[in-house]
Design goal:
It is built from nine helices and 15 strands. By secondary structure, it is an alpha/beta fold. The protein has two domains: about 20-100, Immunoglobulin-like (Sandwich), CATH 2.60.40; about 105-315, 3-Layer(aba) Sandwich (Rossmann fold), CATH 3.40.50.1110. The longest helix is centred in the middle third of the chain and has 23 residues, at about 200-225. The protein starts with about 25 loop residues before the first strand and ends in a 7-residue tail after the last strand.
Length: about 325
């Protein structure tokens, strides 16, 4: 019995010479690859090219996902294929495994007002899928998959800092979180500052209430053995389009002064600052909705990203040990 490598006979017979043909292509993949201590949900990975022998030239080789592509955390199978000029093919596969970190804190209470609820610039519309707690949960799921990190939102639209403090005590007592995230102060400033002068007595008093509210949130959290308290600065006002259903802008001067007090309070009380304001400057039309106060989905994404970065910078993380899946 003759294999393909023995050649083929002339169709005219007569015992003429045979024409040698190359063996079908053969392909050998690199060994399984592990990348450890990955700090994001995905990372670009470069791997060695598979080894290809035989086949009738030209022989082309492709792999999917390609070397240099972005791979997610976990295990991805790479499939490579060689194809020669006569359409004969061979394939192989190997695994690329990305291992990230284990994060020590698993339960996060988010306490705030309509920003926590995900309200947009339209009257009384809550866009929960685009709220920053929802987006923050998605970040945990992507970067720390399967670790049980949970974001519990407790937004109470329209409430001042005094009520946010009361709510915090109630929810922390019930949830027993490892960390608390606090935003608020907008309703205090909206009532007493608005677009008016920042040095007016009502506005100055409201800024003091905001400062004391954040102070009490940090203190009452720590009294209840919460390990980490993250506090957000306020976002700047955005443009209000003509004909918009409502104008809820707060003077940027009032926002700046309130933020200075929030930063001082976080530093003095041992809170962790999530400094949202600077990332909004220059992007107000993109991030702030039509009422000049609440946020668009892109703005809530930035807010989630700032909190997430502060958490990653502060909370203990341990590289996950590698073990090949069976």
């Amino acid at each position: 019995m003759c294999l393909a490598a023995c050649g083929s006979h002339s169709p005219s017979g007569g015992g003429g010479p045979t024409t040698p043909t190359a063996n079908a292509p053969q392909i050998s993949c690199p060994a399984d690859l592990t990348v450890s201590s990955v700090q994001a949900a995905a990372q670009a990975v470069t791997y060695d090219a598979p080894k290809v022998t035989d086949g009738t030239a030209p022989v082309t080789t492709t792999c999917s996902p390609a070397s240099g592509a972005s791979f997610p955390l976990g295990t991805t199978t790479v499939t490579c294929q060689a194809s020669d000029a006569t359409a004969r093919q061979a394939s192989c596969s190997f695994k690329v495994t990305l291992k990230g970190f284990s994060i020590a804190v698993k339960k996060y209470d988010v306490i705030g007002d309509s920003f926590t609820s995900g309200e947009n610039g339209l009257p009384a519309v809550l866009d929960v899928p685009n709220s920053f707690p929802t987006k923050l949960q998605a970040s945990f799921d992507a970067v720390y998959p399967g670790q049980g990190a949970t974001v519990i939102p407790h937004g109470d639209p329209g409430k001042p800092m005094s009520v946010i403090v009361e709510n915090l005590v109630t929810y922390v007592n019930a949830d027993k979180p490892d960390a608390v995230l606090v935003e608020g102060g907008y309703n205090d400033l909206l009532s007493d500052c608005g677009l008016g002068p920042v040095n007016a007595t009502p506005c100055e008093s409201s800024m003091t209430r905001v400062q004391l509210g954040f102070r009490d949130c940090i203190r009452k959290s720590k009294e209840r053995n919460v390990a980490y308290v993250f506090v957000a600065t306020l976002t700047p006002p955005g443009p209000v389009l003509p004909g918009a259903p409502r104008d809820r802008r707060i003077s940027n001067d009032a926002i700046l002064q309130a933020n200075a007090l929030i930063r001082q309070t976080a530093a003095a009380e041992g809170g962790v600052l999530a400094d949202v304001y600077p990332l909004f400057v220059g992007h107000e039309a993109e991030y702030v909705d039509t009422d000049g106060l609440h946020l668009r989905p892109a703005g809530y994404q930035v807010m989630a990203d700032v909190f997430f970065a502060a958490i990653q910078k502060t909370v203990t993380q341990t590289p996950l040990a590698f073990r090949f899946p069976h």
